């Protein structure tokens, strides 16, 4: 019996090789384990003592290189893109590439390298804790809240050097840089109605926080003006967008004469589908996009859109993160959107 106990103990100890192994036994995240073993006061005493006791029991010693990196500067900023709402969306999406380009420029100018991760939260619930606890980055920028708002909030309680591109909500704890999406939605709806649209559709997924705010703003204006607006779920994964838009256009033909696209990418695909159907823009149907990506001025006809200043956003993300790396608990930065009038509405 004693031999069996010794064998089981040895097997158990052998399994505890990483922070993730210890986190599994303790029933907490890898990030919490990392902070507890580093003596971070943000981990409550009871939890820290429990983790330390389990570590001693299993003879666990944190990786020395990781510990060294946590104590010193790595010169690397982690950039994570969580895709919880649309797992098939690609980083090659024009918006991501535009923002990443500006971020890379800003970080390089400040003397930092960039480490990029595309994350599928359904496959790794502790994706953010693992990234932070890896010891490979000095701080983290998260691009988009997706459906991970609560996860980001939890991490923000104990980790200061993190800034998120997304939508700001009153009372939230994580630091955000992003546009006033609700106001942007209002601008889009106001333009469509002012240009003569009598019935509107919103093309986009209303689950992600940013898109939900854009739709809410448009819906508010439409209600005040007595104009109907219907949401038409549209994903941003390349193999689905065109198919979904084609289906939507068949359903709304003759019923809707104004489209607010959640992104310029969706708007550009919509223009292509309308052209193939022989529908005139803005004669038969008007379109307003959102982002003001470079391609929006090159479409036929050029796209009317709501501009969010992506370059200023990237600068804000980096500036706030560097201030937080110095220990400052910064406020969020909400950028004003602007309507860019072209020819589609």
Automatic annotation (TrEMBL):
One Pfam family named in its UniProt record: LacI
Domain HTH lacI-type: 17-71
GO function terms (MF aspect): DNA-binding transcription factor activity; transcription cis-regulatory region binding
SMART domains, sorted: HTH_LACI
InterPro entries: HTH_LacI, LacI/GalR-like_sensor, Lambda_DNA-bd_dom_sf, Peripla_BP_I
Domain of life: Bacteria
Keywords: DNA-binding, Transcription, Transcription regulation
Protein name: LacI family transcriptional regulator
